[in-house]
Amino acid sequence: MHADETTAALKALGFSEIEALVYCFLLGNSPATGYRISKGVGKAAANVYAAIETLAQKGALLIDNDATRLCRATPPKELCDSLEARFKNQRREAETALQALTAETPDQHIYKLETPEQVFSRIKQMIAGASDYILVDAFPEPLREINSFLEEASERGVSVAIETYNDDVETPYALTAQSSYDVRSLALWPGRQINIVVDAREFVLALFNQQCDGVLQAVWSTSGYLACLQHSHMAASLLARQCENDGLLNSPKLRRLRKLALTAARPPGLEQFMQFYATDADGEQYGE
Fold this sequence. Notes:
The chain is of the alpha+beta class. It contains 11 helices and 9 strands. The strands form 2 sheets. The protein has a 7-stranded mixed β-sheet with strand order 3-9-8-7-4-5-6, sandwiched between helices. The protein has a two-stranded antiparallel ribbon with strand order 1-2. It is elongated.
């Protein structure tokens, strides 16, 4: 790693530029006096001495107790462990303080989620707050990400039902229905999806790219009307999938109704959707 990258990494951890320079200098030149450090990093002595004091407070260096006040860098792993422990403590304090200000009132708006981390964080919070029902429609990749959280919810008495697309993910804790469209038959689908509704109170609909490291489209809402519709839709889909698997959809009328299914009917909106998220030969997303 180059010096600029190392400095940037430390700045991301809350170090100022001069603190990062002093710490990096000491890693290769410990012990050293403040005067030597200032010469080594090319910064004014007064600024370096101020940085030494703040670094000592952060636990990034040790200062000899004699008159020379020699400085020695704390080993990187020890420093990072200390910073992590401090961050966790600060995070708990901030979460407690902020939670006291938060009014958990549902609204009717739909909010866009931008990153996979944001999507999964929201979903895990929803699962943690579930009291009665969690309905899920998920491809294997995103399902693996939340599988243990769903199992924990089931263990505390929440009813979990999942529409799955193959047997790659073990979900013995849940009521499952195997989709008639396995992942291979959905090769043209532009990404990997997860749809989840909790207690008919809130839902997330998310479509990731094929690698699940980017979001093509994702939304979250606590709209009561929309959440109830999502619950109804997903419950009906689970029922239909199981009836289909059991061979119970073979009457003439049901066969006609099955032709309304998205991939069977292929309405214009599906074609537009597929074209929007089509990829070129280099894997670049046209829709972005």
